[in-house]
Amino acid sequence: MAIPDSELILNKDGSIYHLNLLPDHISDTIITVGDPDRVPSVSQHFDSIETVIQKREFVTHVGYYRGKRLTVISTGMGTDNIDILLNELDALVNVDFVTREARPLEERINLRIIRVGTSGSLQVDIPVGSHLVTEHAVGLDSLMQFYPLVETGLEVEVSREIQQSLQLDYRPYCVRGSDLLREQLGAGMVAGNTLTCPGFYGPQGRVLRLDLRLPTLVQQFQQFRHQSAEGEFRLTNFEMETAGYYALGRMLGHEVVSLNAIVANRATGEFATNSEAVINDLIAKTLDRV
Ligand code: R1P
Ligand code: URA
């Protein structure tokens, strides 16, 4: 069935609405960063750049790195942008823009999507300067209220216990990312479980001038433990996108991994004095392994 003009919105040049990209523009491996200014920090390593496109916070460079075609896109902040990013990237490869029909199952293309972002550690033993690969992401945001995500038994148990311990009105969602990409790209990094928050301040327990509804949120997350046959599960770090990536990646059938440069430590109160170097090292490591 053809997808209506109001749902699959194409610009006059045939590109997709927000990303401003045509199907031919992107490669099947995509590196994503939050900050638009970080896109050149990735593409400066490319042998050549063939495409530069921008709309709003979505800046895209496509080029070659050691002979491999790569795309780097900035997303801005928050899982609401990840909803746009994942749906539009998927449409670029899995919807025919002429007939407006989704490709049949046997023709579906699976993308490899690698988030390279900054994050705050919750644990003393994960210091600033660490690189962390996310195994499970727990979404405190509302994105998955709108999609029928299927979670495993462990994912439901963990998120239920987090809901109970914080007395939240809703159950967060919990999703494990791609084991394949985690092994390929995360070797030697700390493996962690990431909390994706719908904000940087209150939702991550930061106080400037506003009081919090949950004043002990950081300590409760630090101390949270879930025991299962798979071992002990603890929460390691805060950021604002990973759970959206992992949930929509699972639903759409794309391989997704989140790599985190730890720039803050919420247990010790530190912020990295060399945060640019920490993220740039992670970018170099990612490109080397991709
Ligand atoms: C907040 O400062 C931003 O930094 C983190 C958070 O997820 C949020 O987007 O990621 P990025 O460095 O990828 O933007
Ligand atoms: N990004 C976040 O969302 N939180 C932090 O503490 C650091 C980076």
TrEMBL record:
GO molecular function: purine-nucleoside phosphorylase activity; uridine phosphorylase activity
CDD domains, alphabetized: UP_TbUP-like
GO terms under biological process: purine nucleoside catabolic process
Domain (Nucleoside phosphorylase) ranges: 30-270
Broad enzyme group: transferase
Catalytic activity: uridine + phosphate = alpha-D-ribose 1-phosphate + uracil
This enzyme's EC code(s): 2.4.2.3
CC annotations in GO: cytosol
Protein name, UniProt field: Uridine phosphorylase
Source organism: Hymenobacter fodinae
